[in-house]
C-alpha cells in the first residue's frame, strides 16, 4: 500500500513538473504583452505642456503695455493647463490611462498656446493692433468673471427662445411633411403654399411678425419656427416619399393597419431625411435668433452683442461671440448624439 502511494505521488509530481516549467514562460509572455499594451510616455503631451507653460511665463513676466487687471489670472490658467498636460503625459505608463481622446487632440493642444502667445504679444504686450477693436485675452477673462450675470441671463434667454421656436418649427415640420408625403389631399393643398412661402427668408417676415404678434418675443418664436419648419417639412416629405414600397407590401400582407404603416414603417424609414431637415433647420434658426434678438427682443445673446457694440465694449462682444459659438456647436453635437442613438446603423456615415 505504501509503495502504491509513493508511486502515485511520484507520478503526480511527474505530471505537475512540466506545468511548473511552462508557467514561468506563460507569465513572461503575459508580462511582455502587458508591457506592450501599457501606454508609453506621451511625447506630444510633453511638448504641449511646455508650450502652455512658455505662454504662461511670457504673459506673467513680460510687462503689459497698459493696465490689464486679469493678466495674472490668464497666466495662472495657462500654467495650470500646462502642468496638467505634463503630469498626464508622464503618468500614463504608471496609471495605465490610454488618454485616447487627449492624444487625438495633441496637435491642437500644441497650436492653441502658440496662438494665445501671439495674441497676447500683439495686443497686451506690444499693442500692435488698435484698441479697443482688438482686445487681449485677459480682457475676455475679465468679462466672464465680472459680467457673468448679464451674459449668463442672455445665454439662458437665447436658449429659451431657441427651444420654443425650434421645437414648434420641428414639430410642425415633421407633422406637415408626413401628411404631405402620405396623403394626397394634404399634398394638394399644402404644396403650393410651401412653394410660395417657403423660399422666402424668415427675416423678411420681421415687419409683419412684429406687427401681428402681441410681443416681440412671440414674434421671434414665430420667425424661428418658420425658419425651422420649411427645411424640416421638405426633407420629411422627401423621406416619406422615398420609402421602399416593398416595406408597405410586406407589412400589409402581415395585416398592418394604416396607422401602423405610418408610425412603424414610413416614419422610421424616413428618419435619415428627417434628421437632415432638423440639422438644416437648426442652422437657419441660429441666424434668425441673432437677428430677432437684435431687432426686437430685450434679452439674449443677440441683444447682448448689440448692446456691447453700442458701448464700444468689444471685449464683451467677443466674449458673447465665443459663448454663442459654444452654444450652437453644443446643440449641433447634441442633435448628432440623438441621431447616432436612433440611427445606429448610420453612425459612421455622417460625423460631426
TrEMBL record:
- One GO cellular component from the entry? plasma membrane
Compartments, as annotated in UniProt: Cell membrane
One Pfam family recorded for the sequence: BPD_transp_1
Q: Which PROSITE patterns does this entry report, sorted A to Z?
A: ABC_TM1 (PS50928)
GO process terms (BP):
transmembrane transport
- Which InterPro entries does the record match to this protein? MetI-like (IPR000515), MetI-like_sf (IPR035906)
Q: Where are the transmembrane segments?
A: 41-61, 73-92, 104-122, 161-181, 193-213, 219-240, 261-291, 311-336
Q: Where is this region: Disordered?
A: 9-36
User: Keywords, A to Z?
Assistant: Cell membrane, Membrane, Transmembrane, Transmembrane helix, Transport
Q: Where is the ABC transmembrane type-1 domain?
A: 155-336
* Superkingdom per UniProt: Bacteria
Is the keyword Disulfide bond assigned to this protein?
A: no
Q: Topology relative to the membrane, per the entry? A: Multi-pass membrane protein
Q: Where is the composition biased (Basic residues)?
A: 23-36
Family designation: Belongs to the binding-protein-dependent transport system permease family.
Q: What is this protein called?
A: Binding-protein-dependent transport systems inner membrane component
Organism of origin: Xanthobacter autotrophicus (strain ATCC BAA-1158 / Py2)
Organism phylogeny: Bacteria, Pseudomonadati, Pseudomonadota, Alphaproteobacteria, Hyphomicrobiales
Amino acid at each position: 500500500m505504501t509503495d502504491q502511494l509513493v508511486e502515485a505521488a511520484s507520478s503526480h509530481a511527474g505530471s505537475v513538473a512540466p506545468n511548473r516549467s511552462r508557467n514561468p514562460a506563460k507569465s513572461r509572455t503575459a508580462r511582455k504583452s502587458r508591457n506592450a499594451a501599457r501606454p508609453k510616455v506621451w511625447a506630444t503631451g510633453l511638448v504641449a505642456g511646455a508650450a502652455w507653460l512658455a505662454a504662461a511665463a511670457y504673459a506673467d513676466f513680460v510687462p503689459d503695455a497698459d493696465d490689464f487687471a486679469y493678466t495674472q489670472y490668464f497666466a495662472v490658467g495657462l500654467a495650470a493647463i500646462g502642468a496638467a498636460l505634463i503630469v498626464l503625459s508622464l503618468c500614463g505608463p504608471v496609471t495605465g490611462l490610454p488618454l485616447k481622446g487627449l492624444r487625438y487632440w495633441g496637435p491642437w493642444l500644441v497650436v492653441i498656446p502658440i496662438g494665445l502667445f501671439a495674441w497676447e504679444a500683439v495686443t497686451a504686450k506690444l499693442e500692435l493692433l488698435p484698441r479697443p477693436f482688438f482686445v487681449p485675452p485677459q480682457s475676455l477673462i475679465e468679462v466672464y468673471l465680472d459680467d457673468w450675470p448679464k451674459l449668463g441671463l442672455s445665454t439662458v434667454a437665447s436658449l429659451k427662445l431657441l427651444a420654443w421656436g425650434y421645437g414648434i418649427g420641428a414639430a410642425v415640420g415633421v407633422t406637415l411633411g408626413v401628411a404631405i408625403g402620405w396623403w394626397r389631399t394634404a399634398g394638394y393643398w399644402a404644396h403650393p403654399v410651401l412653394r410660395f412661402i417657403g423660399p422666402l427668408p424668415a427675416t423678411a417676415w420681421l415687419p409683419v411678425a412684429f406687427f401681428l404678434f402681441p410681443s416681440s418675443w412671440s414674434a421671434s418664436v414665430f420667425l424661428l419656427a418658420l425658419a425651422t419648419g420649411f427645411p424640416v417639412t421638405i426633407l420629411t416629405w422627401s423621406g416619406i416619399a422615398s420609402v421602399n414600397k416593398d416595406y408597405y407590401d410586406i407589412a400589409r400582407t402581415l395585416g398592418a393597419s394604416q396607422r401602423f404603416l405610418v408610425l412603424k414603417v414610413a416614419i422610421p424609414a424616413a428618419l435619415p431625411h428627417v434628421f437632415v431637415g432638423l440639422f438644416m433647420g437648426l442652422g437657419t434658426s441660429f441666424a434668425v435668433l441673432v437677428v430677432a434678438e437684435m431687432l426686437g427682443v430685450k434679452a439674449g445673446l443677440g441683444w447682448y452683442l448689440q448692446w456691447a457694440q453700442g458701448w464700444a465694449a468689444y471685449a464683451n462682444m467677443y466674449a458673447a461671440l465665443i459663448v454663442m459659438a459654444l452654444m450652437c456647436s453644443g446643440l449641433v453635437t447634441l442633435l448628432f448624439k440623438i441621431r447616432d442613438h436612433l440611427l445606429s446603423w448610420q453612425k459612421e456615415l455622417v460625423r460631426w
